[in-house]
Structures are given as structure tokens and as C-alpha cells.
Amino acid sequence: MAASTIPTGGHGDPTRRDFLMVATGALGAVGVAATAWPFINNLNPAADTLALSSIEVNIQPIQVGQAITVKWRGKPVFIRHRTPEDIKVAEAVPMSELPDPQTDNARVTDSAKKVRPEWLIMIGICTHLGCVPLGNKPGQDKGPYDGWYCPCHGSAYDTAGRIRKGPAPKNLEIPDYLFTSDTLVRIG
Amino acid sequence: MASSHGTPPVFNNKVIAWIDHRLPVFSYLEKEYNTFPTPRNFNYFWNFGAIATVMLVLMIATGIVLATNYTPHVLMAFDSVERIDRDVPQGWLIRDLHMNGASFFFIAVYIHIFRGMYYGSYKAPRELLWILGVIIFLLMMATAFMGYVLPWGQMSFWGATVITNLFSAIPVVGDAIVTWLWGGFAIDNPTLNRFYALHYLLPFIIVAVVALHVIALHVHGSNNPLGIDPRGPQDTVPFHPYYTMKDGFGVVVFLIVYAGFAFFAPDYMGHPDNYIPANPLVTPEHIVPEWYFLPFYAILRAIPDKLGGVIAMFGAIAVLFVLPWLDTSRVRSATFRPIYKWFMFVLVIDVVVLGFCGANPPAGFWIPLAQVATVYYFFHFLILLPILGKIERPLPLPPSIADAVLKKKAA
Amino acid sequence: MRKLLVTGAIAAASLATAAVAIAAGTTPHPPHKHWHFQGPFGTYDRAAAQRGYQVYQEVCAACHSLSLLAYRNLMELGLTENQVKDLIKDIQVPDLNDDGQPIERPARPSDRFKKPFPNEAAAAAANNGKAPPDLSVIVKARENGPDYIHALLTGYVPFDKLTPEQIKEFAVTKDDNFNTYFPGHKIAMAPPLSDDKVTYADGTKATTDQEASDVVEFLAWASEPHMEDRKRTGVRVVLFLLAMAGLMYAVKRSVWSDKH
């Protein structure tokens, strides 16, 4: 719209009036912006959602060689208690054989840099197109590398959850986790 | 700009000029909200149209955000509202604003309506403007009623039961209509779902009718406290900045009162029973609707007959539709109607009395009081107004708005 | 004009008052007590509310659920995460295992308060046919909630202290619980509180009145955990609007100065 002209003349002092207009406009703008925030903020995750954004898992009952699946932020998380054999095999793989090179150590380090190679904690979602790979439950097909195998398009992961064969471009993702005690791990 | 009404505005900004040449929204704004000639003698009662508009926008904005977190299911509705209060970031704020916003929207609209009545704003040539306003009022009532059901508390449930059962008073088809309204044999999940859908829809229909209301308003311009038409530029001022600034001030003052309630007494206008989850097997001791329905609720209960009560209640609103033809006086403003003025005050008191009757249990002296007040309500519109216009001797009208304003200033 | 304004204001105010007016009936009004959370600047007394949680947990929780609250909410009462975990370490909550079978597992902070009964029918069955109400919003769900609940908890009259008129009028028997402030006076809940029913860690003497006040403070907080935030925001909003109103009035006057 064209700039509005305030009728002049009469007793109003134009300078004072301009100042008042600007001050009122500025304060009004602040008010509108401050009002907009709660409306936007309302759509952020609620406190009950955030309360579930980190979970604590007791890993004590998981026997060597076993794995469990827990739900975290709506996704499956694989927790495998690896055998010394699993670890040895994973550590021995040369980096050159890996499509997404990453040392075994780097995959078993918690957010406080604590390395516990017997615990492998990963998001159980194939990095190809989002299927959940097999191999976490006893009796399931673990694929040619004895880790996990995605039945959708044949991606195979090794005992460190690294992609070895198939269309998936990346290793299974490692979430943020922290060992809060010998038997408790907090994910998220 | 400084263009006077009538000459097409010239826009210096090229983008605006380009758009306006193709879609004249800026010319429209310029004509209707900038240079629009408006009587210079409005008092603060003329703020309430703008205030009501602000409340409507606020209700829609808060409502849409609330809807993103609300669950319309009988098992989850109550908890989802509490979740908004407890867990959703600043959800309590949005809900408080919405909850109290309904009350303050009605406060603004009731003042707006009584202003229209006092100053005869419904008279020719503004009859359709008035009728559109009554339609907005009806739509608001429907929207507010259905919105109150959504939290699924005891008052939600039983209020909905009582109000929908009104339709069962209709002979022959009444029960079938009620079953149809409910989508079942009692107020239940289908009812909650359809009320939610309609509660979301109706505000947008209100916006459409408000647009028509404003279009009708701008055909002949606003009425004014003197009730006489402007006779020339000396009687009017451009809408902007005179009334934009005055409305802005009025809106902010109104918002202070509103904020006072929303932030410091958010449940004052509500009923404690609505914090008890709906229970179809237990009726609260006293079912009371929201305060803005109380006068009509009192009229409903004043008539000791089911169908009669329903007819009287709807009649109390229907009578407003024909108000422009019931009032036979050719003078608009009560300022120049020495008798009508007092009856207007009596009507306001009558409606307040009806409100008290509606809030109290129908027992003891409240019953005859509600009946007297109901009779008076209809007497005012159906008998008093047609007769008064004929027998009342109005005071002399001033020659022009400017004349009256200058005289008042001199005095 | 001024008269009109005043009439309008009175009309609006009286309608609002009418909305909340309820019939008093025969039950006496609960005596008014001053609460820490009242008034435009009132806040919750954290220490009292924490003691109130103890009363709820040790006394009320046996029958009354608090289903809208989660254990994590206790952190808003001033407890640390570890204190909350410590409080709930012995609580087992129902869940399903991976095979869909019902199990009990230790409570987590994100869990809602454990219900004493699995559902309302079970609650009613265990309590002579009437389920004890959930207490999550009980303070907001009663007229003068804080005063009423405090009066109710301290308003029991033993049978031998009742006058013969009372016994006759309300048909009280030895097995009934007579409460001065309960509508109808006969209440299913036996007197829940007594002196030294709980032992407070902070050394506060646990009189019946103290326990009742503390649990009301806790339940008031439970009803509206964001009350302090609401009032703080309200002060800011009202101050802002007052400044805005002042400026708008100056602008309006200045604009109109050539027309008046």
C-alpha cells in the first residue's frame, strides 16, 4: 500500500506524532513476534514425547552371543552381546574390504569414549531403503557375514554391523549411548 | 497517497501498482480501510466490531494449533486436553487463550449487539447488515456449544445431552432427529467426532458471513451515536488513521481485561465439573451451560412445557431477525428517544436477570422470576417496540454531525 | 455515555458471576484457608508439595490413582532425576513383553503414576461399588478445590461425637463415616489421615491438619503444574499491553487532535 499520510495541521506536533507512531509500531511488532512464538513452539515435541527420547536398558540378562531388540524413538535398536569370536572376526577385516570403512573399535565406543567391544548397539534399520534386517533373533538368517541380513534387497552386514555386500551404502547407524553403570546403558 | 474518496489511488511502489492493476486488492484496502469516510462522532462502543474481529482471528489461530494436539475420541479426548495443558510446549497458554477467548468473543459481541440496539443500527438501510450479524451470533453459539463438548468432561457430556435433546421436542420426527444428531442412541464417539469436525468448520463459515457483514456495512457506511446520516465531508473522517488508531487502542484495552482472566483466573468462567471426565451414568447435580447461554437457558426452563420452552428459546433469537420491522420509530439513536432509552436499559437488566435465573437451579423464586423476565423479553420486542415508535415524541435531531460535535465541544 | 459503559460493565460482570454461582445446599462452605499458591504472584511451596507427595504415596495411592502424572513430573517439584529414580525403584508397572504376554517391570521416570486398580470396574468392585476418583485434576474439579479438599480431609466427626439430631437427619449408623463438608455427609472414604500417619523426613510435625495441607499443596500442583509459568507470563503480557495501551492512547489523541 502507498505510504499513509497523516493529516497534518491542527495542534498535533508532527515530529512528536511520528515518534509516537514509530514507537507504537515497533512495540506492536515485538508483541506480534512474541505472540507468534507459542503458536510455533506448540508444534514442537511435547514433554511426554521427549521423556521417551532416551531410554535406559538393563543389559545384564543378555547372554553372550544373544541379542535383543528395543524400541527407541519409534525405531528398533539392536543390542548384541558379542562373542570373543565375533569381535576377533570383526577386528581382523581389512579396511579396504569395507564399502563404508570404519574400525570395529569405533563402532563399540559410547558417548563418554568408553570402549566395550562385547556390546554392539545399533539402529536396526537397513541403510538402503529402511527395512529391518534379520539376524537379531535366534534362528534368523544372519547372512553370509554372520551379522545381519536384509531380506528386502539382500544387503549383508558383518558382526560389527558394517555393510559388506548388497545395495546398502552405509554401515548400520550407531545411536548415541552411554554406559551409566556396568549393567545399564542409556540410549539417546 | 492522500487521495480522497472516489478518485482512484495512485501507487508509487511499482510492484504494488503492477499487482493492483491485475488484482485490485490494494485499491480495495485503500478505499475501504484508508480513505473510507466514517462518521467523526463514534464513541468507544464502536470499537467492538474491531474487537470481535480480533477475537475471531485469535480463536481460529489458537483453535488450529490446539487441533494439532487434540484427539477426538471418547477414551482419549479428556486426556489429550490435559496433555495439551501439561506436556505440549506452551500448550497451557494456547488452551487458556482459547477457553477464555470464547467468553471474551461473546462479551465483545454482546456489547456490539446492545450498541446496535441502543443506537438503532438495524434500521433502514442496514436491515441486512443486522440480519447477517444475527446469523453470525447463531453460528457463534453453535460453534461455542460444540467446542465445549470437545474436552469431554461432565459438563461437556451433559450439556450436549441436554441441548441435543431439545430437538426431541419436535413432534413426530423429534426422536429420529436426535438419533441422527448423535449418530447413535446416546452421546458417544460418533457425536464427539462430528462435533469436532463441525467445530473446526463453522469458524470459517463465520469468517465468510463476517465478510458479507462488512461488505453490507460499507455500502451505506456505519451508523453513529446520533443516528443521522453524514451530509458531507465535514461530518466524516477517513477511516485511517482516525479509527484504525482508535480501534487499536480499544483492542489493546480489551486485551488487557482478557489477559487478566486468561492468565490469572483461567477457570473462573468455566465449571469445575468439566474437570471430571464424562460419565454417562452420573449426571452432575446442576447442569449449567457456559455463561453466554444462560439467558436463553433461563427462557428454555421458564416455560413449563417441553416444546413450548424450546420454541421460546429459539424464538428469543428469532425475534432479533425481525427487529428492524418491529421497531416502528423512524429515529435511530436512543439519544433522541426519551422513553425507548429507558426501556433499553430495562432490557439489559432483564437479560442479566435471565442470566442469573439460568445459572441457578430451577427452584423457589427463580422460577417465577425467570418467567416474568421471559415475558418481559418478548414484551419488549413484540409489543413495546411497535407501539413505542407510534406514541413516543422524539427529541429534535441536530442538523448535522459536525454541528452536534462542534456544539458539544463549545459547551 | 458513561452511564452506558457502567451498565455494560455491570452486566458483563454479573453474568460472569452468575456463571459460577451454585446453590449452597445444606453442606457448610469449607473454611477459607490461605494457600501459598493463591493470588497473582502465588507459587507452590515446594517443600510442602514434596511432603504432600509422601502423603499421597503412603496413604492415598492405595485407592486413588493419579493417572495424568508421570514420575518424571516430580522433577518439576524440585527433585533430581536420581531422587525420582530412587523413589520409584520398588514400583513395578504392568507392561507387555516381546511375545505380548503381560509382565511387570520396574517403573521408569517416563511412566505414568501406577494405578492402584487395573480399571474403573475393578476399582469400584474393591470399594463397595464406587470407584475412588482419580486425583490428577481433583483440585480444579471441585468448587473452591483447595479449601474443600482440606476441609474434607479434616472434617470427619466420629460417631460418638454426633448430635442425636444429626444421626437422625442423615440416618447415620455406626459403620458410616460422617464428614461435615461432604455433600450428604455420609462418605465412603474412611478418615484417611491421622496425627503421625506419616513421618516427614524434614522434621515437620505430622499433624492431621499438616498432612491435609501438604497433600492439598501437592494435588494443587498436580492439577496445574504450569501455574507459576502462567502467572509469570501473565505479568509480562499485562505489563506489555499496558505500555502498548499507553502508546496507542497517545497516538490516538495525537491523530485526533485536529478534530476535537
> Proportion of β residues of chain C?
5-15%
The H/E string of chain C reads HHHEEHHEHEEHH
Major beta-sheet overview of chain A: 3 strands, antiparallel
Task: Tell me the overall shape of chain C.
Answer: globular
* SS field, number of helical segments of chain C: 8
For the largest sheet of chain A, list the strands in their spatial order.
1-9-8
Number of strands of chain C: 5
Uncertain stretches of 5 or more adjacent residues of chain C: 1-6, 10-25
The radius of gyration of chain C is 24 Å
CATH superfamily of the largest domain in chain A: Rieske [2Fe-2S] iron-sulphur domain
Number of domains of chain A: 2
Category from helices, strands and their pairing of chain C: mainly alpha
In the CATH hierarchy, the architecture of the largest domain in chain A is 3-layer Sandwich
Q: How do you describe this structure in short?
A:
The complex is a heterotrimer of chains A (188), B (411) and C (260). Chain B has 411 residues and is mostly helical.
Description:
The complex is a heterotrimer of chains A (188), B (411) and C (260). In chain A, the strands form 3 sheets. Chain A has a 3-stranded antiparallel sheet, with no helix packed on it. Chain A has a 3-stranded antiparallel sheet with strand order 2-3-4, with no helix packed on it. A 3-stranded antiparallel sheet of chain A has the order 5-6-7, with no helix packed on it. Chain A has helices at residues 14-41, 47-51, 84-92; strands at residues 55-58, 67-72, 75-81, 119-123, 148-149, 156-157, 163-165, 177-179, 184-187. The two termini of chain A are 51 Å apart. Chain A folds into 2 domains: 14-44; 50-187, Rieske [2Fe-2S] iron-sulphur domain (Rieske Iron-sulfur Protein, 3-layer Sandwich), CATH 2.102.10.10. Chain A is an alpha+beta fold and 188 residues long. The two termini of chain B are 36 Å apart. Chain B has a two-stranded antiparallel sheet with strand order 1-2. In chain B, 65% of the residues lie in helices and 1% in strands. Chain C is mainly alpha-helical and 260 residues long. Chain C has helices spanning 2-20, 46-58, 81-87, 120-126, 145-154, 164-169, 208-223, 227-256; strands at residues 92-96, 102-106, 156-157, 177-179, 186-187. In chain C, the strands form 2 sheets. Chain C has a 3-stranded antiparallel sheet with strand order 3-4-5. A two-stranded antiparallel ribbon of chain C has the order 1-2. The longest helix of chain C is centred in the C-terminal third of the chain and has 30 residues, at 227-256.
